[in-house]
């Protein structure tokens, strides 16, 4: 095995990390040592191949969703932080209203509301996609929502504690959201189904209350 | 260290966007995300070699950046700072996953043997001249890199893709300069071995 410094010389030459005097001496060695020259040429070609085939910038899949989900998570963090700062004397309603009044709500908050109570599909390209609940919003103050994924049923189960008894003839339906697009200028988020059709538009009205526009029949 | 992308005239500077983001302007931060998501994703993808995980890690990097923004003093370019965060997020993930390549080189024990002879250009199909061959070669290089250990993959990406100097790699990893050189050497030897039919030359 060659001394480590010899390997280092080769690597430093390859990466252009040699000083001028070192470079001249090493290139003289290359002329005299065909084995070293062969090694240097092969590694040099390999480096060029790697640089050619590994782009420093790539098109990110589901770019809009990538951005919007970051905004949702930021909104959630701010919400969590806000809740932690609040005392227990503040009612849930007050808390919710103060959340809406936060400056970030104009952009990210709208997105957060967009996913309340809906199952948001992750942008998988594989068949093993799992649903992910990003946030909840329960208009009834006494209702608490939670969720888990049932592997056997391969379904996301939404639990609503504190809900009044639902009449037997009441139908409940959900929306499977495939992707979303956020229009920051108008602080509105549109949710689309797998076919690309808009399911729901979420924004807020002039006084900051959530505004839902949907063409999906509600159960 | 990677620096920010060149900006078009009229485009809002990173400094302005960062200041607005630090003041809580999520729209400004969204602009920064849009500007750098492709580069951050490329880095995480090259290190992870998995589209979904790379997507998640890139997003995690931006979230961490948002949380750390109040502490960003702008003593470095925003992208340089963001890149460090993304790198650390990704490498932490790699460490946790303990992804190991097959037949990994051992920096301390492995000997490398080089056949006698030298030739400046690769033989046979080594210079693919069609798009298909080029794509196939790219795929093979990607596969070969995916078989490297996280440590070796890391230095290859930092050096060959990001063009970082040794000292920058040393500071980012972190490790000694000697370790950077050793890892680069053995990572390349491993790749050379896997791509022997492409890059091997004869004396």
Give a description of the structure.
- The complex is a heterodimer of chains A (219) and B (203).
- Chain A is of the alpha+beta class.
- Chain A contains 6 helices and 9 strands, in the order H-H-H-H-H-H-E-E-E-E-E-E-E-E-E.
- In chain A, strands 6-7-8-9 form a 4-stranded antiparallel sheet. Chain A has a 3-stranded mixed sheet with strand order 2-1-5, with no helix packed on it.
- In chain A, a hairpin with a 5-residue loop joins strand 8 and strand 9.
- Chain A is elongated.
- Chain B is mainly alpha-helical and 203 residues long.
- In chain B, helix 7 crosses helix 8.
- The longest helix of chain B is centred in the first third of the chain and has 23 residues.
- Chain B is globular.
- Chain B starts with 13 loop residues before the first helix and ends with a helix.
- In chain B, 40% of the residues are buried.
- Chains A and B meet through helix 1, helix 3 and helix 4 of A and helix 2, helix 3, helix 5, helix 6 and helix 8 of B.
Average pLDDT metric of chain B: 80
Which parts of chain A are unreliable, with pLDDT below 50 for 5 consecutive residues or more?
Answer: 88-129
Helix-and-strand structural type of chain B: mainly alpha
The number of distinct β-strands of chain B equals 0
Provide the structure class of chain A: alpha+beta
Largest sheet of chain A: 4 strands, antiparallel
Order of helices and strands of chain A: HHHHHHEEEEEEEEE
